[in-house]
Amino acid sequence: MLKLLQADMLKVKRKWLWFLVFLGPFGVIALQIVNYRVRYDYLIQQQPDVWKGLMENVNMFVAPAMLLGMTIIASQLANIEHQQSSWKHLLSLPIRRRDVFSSKFMIAVMMLIVSCLLLFIGTILLGVALKFGWDFPFQSLLGNSFYPLLAGLPVLALQIWLSITFQNQAYPLTLGISGAVFCMLSYKAPVWFIWKWPLILGDQDPNRFVLAGILVGFIFFLIGMVDFQRRDVK
Amino acid sequence: MKEIIVQTTDLVKKFKGRPAVKSVNLSIEKGEIYGFLGPNGAGKTTTIRMLLGLMKPDSGTIELFGKNVKRSHLEALKKIGSLVESPSYYAHLTARENLEAIRKLIYVPKSRIDEVLSIVRLTEDADRAVKGYSLGMKQRLGIASALLGNPELLILDEPTNGLDPSGIHEIRDLIKSMPQQYGITVLISSHLLSEIDQMATKVGIISKGEMIFHDSIEALRNKAQTQIKLRVENAEQAKNLLLGKGFVLKQGDNALHLKDVRDHNVAKVINLLVQNGIGIYRVEEQRKSLEEIFLGLTDEGGAKHAKTSAS
Ligand SMILES: Nc1ncnc2c1ncn2[C@@H]1O[C@H](COP(=O)(O)OP(=O)(O)O)[C@@H](O)[C@H]1O
Ligand SMILES: [Mg+2]
Q: Record keywords: Cell cycle included (chain A) (predicted)?
């Protein structure tokens, strides 16, 4: 398993995936800089707890960005193998198919963890720059930064599965991008609509969605893995 | 008896109900270069994918290195190197990085990369991105990755496809040296008999998913029907005379073609012609080329198939 991860890390070399990992959090923070510059007074007035207000604003942007990031990373990781029909060679090596699938999933999770960490640091720096002081709520900020990833695991598992299954990346990309767009409009969507889970909505307990995300994400991951094991390789 | 490396029994694979491989029985002994021949679409790649565990057969069994691989291919795959259809590679990586990405997954020392690079003569270009490679170089890289794990069985699916004659020659020499130099058994597929002819020790011919021939290349040559071609002064008269005496022959290309080539039969025919005052210009033995035999065999297979599907 470890050797597969190493091989997969080697394969993403010179792809712009790592750039994307940095671009995501950077973009979100940049948008917040603009947001606070334009309507600082209004935003402070809306939520007197300044750090809480910042987190809410960040989350609104992070949720769709995270879904988009998951979609693109999953597609790129799968496409490395699709491009020169490398699946057939990879899968005729003496390795387990389930490990091949798991490795792709884990590489994606690792990249997104880096994004979340950068977001965490970025949010703090932004808050400090906005003169919110250094006594920030460490735990809530950490939670806020990683929440969309955890609650979004079902989407990631789904995207990995579809990206690997379909040679034509238009299908998974269409689904993933639609999901990211609808996520922003999904306040009233039913609870099973997994694309809204990364959003923190006022009246719901985020912890429940973290738990649900991990659980459902794991189930989707298993389904994808079993399907991948059975499928004929072209 | 020699160890059998590959043995398939009544292998069947269907795509959406249409059989692509019907009851294929392969048997490859250690140290052989097995030429797997058949026209495009005959089912070669599908068979090879099943051997590699990339596709599951609908029925039939596969034994590799004497073990049934129905439950797990893992052990067998450790001893197999393969190149299926077009070579797989990561275009944005160099040849060395490509091999390293594979090496990490199999247990061989790093020095093996330099060895295989030199076997396929890519050492000088090893640190260039593969996207800048010619087709022949990509194909050679494909062979290098197949050799990386020190395989006991090398499976090459149309490895010379798209190569120019010198590239074909190069790969042929490389493959020919495998059994002697490294003790490797080779399964190589092709749709051209001429490619296999000069290196294979055994041939299997597949047509429309069915094995129609499975023997040594000499046995295939012996299938060549020889004829005696006679060019004579008056073909029409000669033909009527010989047919009247019960000889089997055909007229064509301004000549007569005699089916029975045994010496005494030929002697009788010539004697008869001389006695009847018909001038004889040429007596030639004609042997079909291997390519003609191959085409004949695959055509027969086609005709048989057409008949069964029509009924
Ligand atoms: N993945 C697939 N789905 C449907 N049909 C296929 C697939 N792969 C091969 N076939 C069909 O199976 C037959 C055999 O193909 P193949 O094994 O690739 O032949 P060959 O390698 O001898 O040229 C062809 O008729 C081909 O169209
Ligand atoms: Mg083929």
A: no
The CATH number fitting domain B4-222, selected from 3.60.15.10, 3.40.50.300, 3.40.980.10, 3.90.1300.10:
3.40.50.300
On whether ipTM exceeds 0.95, the answer is no
pTM beyond 0.90: the answer is no
**Structural domain range at position A33:** 2-230
Is residue B16 within 8 A of residue B41, CB to CB? The reply is: no
Query: Cα B152 to chain center, whole Å?
Result: 20
Number of domains in chain A: 1
Protein residue whose Cα sits closest to atom 12 of ligand 1: B20
In the DSSP assignment, the letter for residue B86 is: S
Which element (helix H / strand E) includes B154?
A: strand B153-157
C-beta B217 within 6 A of ligand 1 = no
The residue whose CA has the least distance to atom 9 of ligand 1 is: B46
3-state helix, strand, coil in chain A (%, to 5): 75, 0, 25
Of residues B49, B78, B90, nearest to A11 (C-beta): B90
Contact assignment for B77 to A93 by CB distance below 8 Å? yes
Mean pLDDT score across all residues of chain A: 91
Q: Which fold has domain B226-287?
A: Alpha-Beta Plaits (3.30.70)
Return the exposure string of B9-20: e unless at least 16 CB atoms fall within 10 Å of the residue's CB, then b: eebbbeeeeebb
Measured between alpha carbons, how far is A200 from A70 in angstroms, rounded to an integer? 18
Q: Which helix (H) or strand (E) holds B80?
A: strand B80-83
- Chain B residues with CB under 8 Å of A3 CB are 104-105
Alpha carbon distance B32, B185 (integer Å): 5
Contacts of B97 in chain A (CB under 8 A): 10, 13
Q: Do B88 and A10 touch (CB under 8 A)?
A: no
Q: What is the helix (H) or strand (E) element at residue B12, kind and residue range?
A: strand B4-15
Site from A89, A96, A227 to mutate, B interface, most B CB atoms within 10 angstroms: A89
Q: How far is B101 from chain A (nearest CA, A)?
A: 5
pLDDT digits (tens, 9 = 90+) for A73-111: 999 999 999 998 899 999 999 999 999 999 999 999 999
